Amino acid sequence: MMTDPSPVSAPQAPSAPDLLAVSGLRVEIPTRHARLVAVDDVSFTIRAGEVLGVVGESGAGKTIMGAAIMGLLEPPGRIAAGSIHFDDRRIDTLPYEAMRRIRGRDISMVFQDPLTSLNPLYTVGRQLTETIRTHTDLSESAARDRAVGLLQEVGIPAADRRIDHYPHQFSGGMRQRVVIALALCVNPRLVIADEPTTALDVSIQAQIIAVLKRLCRDHGAAVMLITHDMGVIAETADRVAVMYAGRIAEIGPVRDVIKRPRHPYTVGLMGSIPAIGHDTDQLTQIDGSMPRLTEIPTGCAFHPRCPYIRDRCRRDRPELLPVGASQAACWRHVPGFDEGPAHA
Amino acid sequence: MLAFIIQRLLQSILVMLTVGLIAFGLFRYVGDPISNLVGQETSLAERDALRERLGLNDPFFVQFARFAANAAQGEFGYSYRHRRPVEDVIAERLPATMELSLVAALLALAVGVPMGIYTGLHRYGVISRAFLTVSLVGISIPTFLIGILLILLFGVELRWLPTFGRGEVVHLGWWSTGFLTTSGLQALIMPSITLALFQMTLIMRLVRSEMLEVLRTDYIKFARARGLTNRTVHFGHALKNTLVPVITITGLQLGSIIAFAIITESVFQWPGMGLMFIQAINDVDIPVMAAYLCLIGFVFVVINLVVDMLYYLVDPRLRVDRAVAAGHPG
C-alpha cells in the first residue's frame, strides 16, 4: 500500500514547479501561560491555476495558515518553523515592505464578511483605484476604467454608476462581488479565499462561489479556498486538504478524498453532509469536539474521538503517508495496525 | 442636507430658549432687582412705581419674551457693579478668553492627535508607554495645581515668563489682541499650556483607543491584504475612521475649554470672561451672570451644530441614506 505511486500528491519539495509551496510550517502564539501551536508541521503545494480546498472545523488553524502565507499574522503570533515559497522565492522571511509589494499583486485575499471588509468612508471605486494604482503605473482614469470593467466582470449591474457608490449602498452579496473584484484587480496568481460565503445568505452562496471560480479561471489565478463547507469544496476544488487541530489529516484529489476518505475524521466529515439522491434517515456526527489549542492530545490529536483507536494512536503522532491517490495521517494505513491491542 | 440643517437650527433655538429661561430665572427670582437698583432710603411707594415702570409687574411670559428679545439683540441690561451695559463689559473681556481658548484648543489638538496616533500604532513601544504615563499625570493633577506649579517654576524661580495678566494688547476695532506683542505672546504661554493639558491628554487617549479599535477591523486587514502602503492604511483608512468620535469629543471639549477657562483665568489673573464671572458671583452681579450663562450656552450650541455638519462631511452613511431610501438600494 505504501508503494502505491501517487503522482498527484508527490511534489512536496520547494524546487518543484509549484506556485506556492508550504513546507513544515509551524505557527506559534506565545501566551502568558503557554506557547500555543496553531499550525503544526503543515506542508502542501498549490500549482498555478489550481483550486485547493482547505476544510476543517472552526479553530483548526485554517485562517491562521492563510494569514501566515499573506505575512499578516497578528502579533504575538509568529512563524516558528518551516518555510513558504511563492514562485520559487522564499516569502516568509521577506521584510515587511517587500512582502507588501507581493500582497494584492501576486497573492491576494478574500475575507469572510463582506459587510466589514470594505472601508465604509470611501466609494468602492476609490478603494479599487487605490489598489490598482498601488501596484501598477496606471493613471487615475485608466485605473478607473479597469475598475469599471472588473465590476462588470463580477456581475454588478450599471457598474459605471455604481462605482461611485459607498459600500453601505450595496447588499451583502454585491459587496462580496466588490471584494472579489478588489482581490483580482491586479491579476494576482494566487487568491486566498477565507470562508468567502459563510456570512452570506444560502441563496447567494452558490452565485458568489461561481463568480469567484469564473474570475480566478479567467485571470489565471490559483485559489486556496478555506471553508468548512464540504459541498463547496466538492464543486469547486481540484484538491482538498482536511485540517484537524492545526495539522493536515488528509490531503488529495477531491474525488478521491470524497469517494474514499482515508482518515477517520474525513470519514466523519463526509457522514455529516446530507447527500441528494441517497435516502438517509440520519446524518452521522462525530462525537466530542475538536480540542482547544491549550489541550491538544498526545499522539494523534484525533484519538479521543476516533472509533478505530489503538494504543499506538495515543502514543505516537502519525505523519502523512501516501494512501491511494491521497495522503492521510493515520496509523490505520500502516501495516500491522490491527494487530495492536485495543485497550480503552 | 438643508432639511437637516434647518432641523438642527430649530433644536438649537429651543435649547437657547431653555438656557434663557434659566438665566431669566436668575434675573427675576434671585434677590429683588429693585433692591439692587435703589438705596435703602427709597420709600415703598417709589419702589412700586419703579417696579411698574420697569415692567416687573407684567405677567411672567411677557417679561420672559421681553428678556429673550433683548438677549437675542445682545442686550442684558446694566451691570450692578460696573454701572455699564453688560454687553460692553463682555465685549471687553471676550477677546482675552477667546484668544486663550483658541491657543489652548489648537495646542491640545496639535499635540494630542499625533501622540494618540503614535501610541495607537506603536502600542508596545517604549515611547508610547512614556506618553501614556505622562498623560496619566496630566489627567490626574488638577488644573489649578499645574498652573501654580508652572508659575512657581517659570515665573518665580527661573523668571522667564510673566506670572499674571495678558501683557500688552493691541486694539483692532473693539477686539483687543495679545498676539501682536512680545509680552502678550509670552503671557499667553503658561495659561494656554495649563488650559490645554487636560484636553490634550484626553484627546490623546481618545485617538489612541479609537485607532486601536479601527486597526482591528476587517477593512484594515483587507487594506493590508491589498498591499496598500502603511501610510495609506494608517492615515487614509484608519485615521479617517477615528474622526467621527474624535470630532464629537473634541467639539464638546472646545466648549469646556472656554468654560474651564474660569479656573485658569483665576490662577493667572487673566482678564477674560471667566475672571469676570467669578467677580460677578462675588458681587451678586446678576445681569453679568445671566449674560455669561447665555453666552456659554450659545457657544455650546454653535459647536454642536458645527460638529453635526462635520459628521455629514466625514461619514457618507449619514449623507446618502436618503438616496438609498429614495430607491437606489444595493
Average pLDDT score of chain A: 85
Beta-strand portion of chain B reads under 5%
Number of strands of chain A: 12
CATH A-level architecture of chain B: Orthogonal Bundle
Write the H/E string of chain A, N to C: EEEHEEHEHHHHHEHEHEEHHHEE
CATH topology of chain B: MetI-like fold
The most extensive interface between chains reads: A-B, 37 and 28 residues
Strand content of chain A: 15-25%
Rg of chain A (C-alpha, Å) = 21 Å
How many strands, which pairing sense, and closed or not: the largest β-sheet of chain B?
2 strands, antiparallel
Radius of gyration of chain B using CA atoms only: 25 Å
The major sheet of chain A is characterized as: 8 strands, mixed
User: Quick one: how many beta strands of chain B?
Assistant: 2
In the predicted model, the low-confidence regions of chain B spanning at least 5 consecutive residues are: 322-330
Structure class of chain A: alpha/beta
Shape of chain A: globular
